[in-house]
Fold this sequence. Notes:
Number of strands of chain B: 13
Radius of gyration of chain B: 20 Å
Shape of chain A: globular
CATH topology of chain B: Glutamine Phosphoribosylpyrophosphate, subunit 1, domain 1
Oligomer: heterodimer
Strand content of chain B: 15-25%
CATH topology of chain A: Glutamine Phosphoribosylpyrophosphate, subunit 1, domain 1
Helix content of chain B: 25-40%
Order of helices and strands of chain B: HHEEEEEEEHHHEEEEHHEEH
Number of domains of chain B: 1
Strand content of chain A: 15-25%
Amino acid sequence: xxxxxxxxxxxxxxxxxxxxxxxxxxxxxxxxxxxxxxxxxxxxxxxxxxxxxxxxxxxxxxxxxxxxxxxxxxxxxxxxxxxxxxxxxxxxxxxxxxxxxxxxxxxxxxxxxxxxxxxxxxxxxxxxxxxxxxxxxxxxxxxxxxxxxxxxxxxxxxxxxxxxxxxxxxxxxxxxxxxxxxxxxxxxxxxxxxxxxxxxxxxxxxxxxxxxxxxxxxxxxxxxxxxxxxxxxxxx
Amino acid sequence: xxxxxxxxxxxxxxxxxxxxxxxxxxxxxxxxxxxxxxxxxxxxxxxxxxxxxxxxxxxxxxxxxxxxxxxxxxxxxxxxxxxxxxxxxxxxxxxxxxxxxxxxxxxxxxxxxxxxxxxxxxxxxxxxxxxxxxxxxxxxxxxxxxxxxxxxxxxxxxxxxxxxxxxxxxxxxxxxxxxxxxxxxxxxxxxxxxxxxxxxxxxxxxxxxxxxxxxxxxxxxxxxxxxxxxxxxxxxxxxxxxxxxxxxxxxxxxxxxxxxxxxxxxxxxxxxx
Lengths: 236, 273
């Protein structure tokens, strides 16, 4: 008969958290910045089709770092949640707060109950009519939720990237400035010299939530993914 | 064990909002509930019915137009109902039949297309959209058998072929591609007659709007369930055009002008029809 060793809950949770942190630290960072024109989401991602940034609903976007299969299933669950809610109530009843709380609950449940925690970190962003009404939520693997202002940085070198962005962030940034600032943060300063030129549009994934999508594009869907040509044009 | 997990994951991976609802929230579907089984509908239910929709191709795209009347037996249930809707960026649909179910079905179809786009990251092909709509109409068959039928007309711009296309449906979900023009609803016979005389190949978008307004005028002339242009309340048909740049709602001012032209021309002619 095998003896079950006693492991204290503190130790168990710590081991799980360390495991998840290690997984997340391996990946590249993602930056979400609230600015004058709306919200910019920038990720370093060489794949043009396996996205880290996605549209959830009219005014809501999603960004993630970590294991693709895990955050992709969360993204799809988020789209389903939002669409069911918007279909059964009304489109304006879908909010980032509601979605973030559902994510927090599912991440928390997986962290305590499943074999292994999700190795992901998520950001849920909702663009408002004014910058003060923007919402940025950051969700970690254990289900903790944080209501952030101005910007969110997640992933491997989050601390370093975050200090660069923190220094450069102003409320009056437009999309071009915000994306430039994000790239400055994502590219380590030591490599910036040669990489600033060699980090081409193809290595970036950029999407924005337009604050004025109704008047600018006649669409209530604020999310717009920028292709390589758009990114080059924006940064030119 | 592993294989069954993989199968389960594959089976659960759906990009369809309708399938998701069917599985998790069937009570939210507009169809799927049968009225009391086995009880034949003695008299048709008194519910609002949406009426005439016309659609036609023109040079570079397709157009769809609907009048503004819903009827309930001999009563006008609504003078302002809108029966033509954008389905997504490149397609529109118009509905005739039981208004309550049709409007919910439209909402479901719009979410279905947007949901697919968000999950998959690409737009559904025009054929794919037309097939999905057919499946929804078939889902409504039990209710259609009891008198609550919905018959849509679907038009969109096929971005891969670069042409506008038109699809009609029957209550069993049968899908038929139409050429040139098509009409559905109670006034469709009269609108069709007008279209046969007015429609020409390679119409411009503005001419097509004029043809649509006139054919709806003819339908309203002979069908009591179709509403004509209402100059007192300033109500004009709803018209959408779809071309390579997407679906666009024709502004009220253009529709008012087109409607007044028809009324004026007929007043001057002063003939019986």
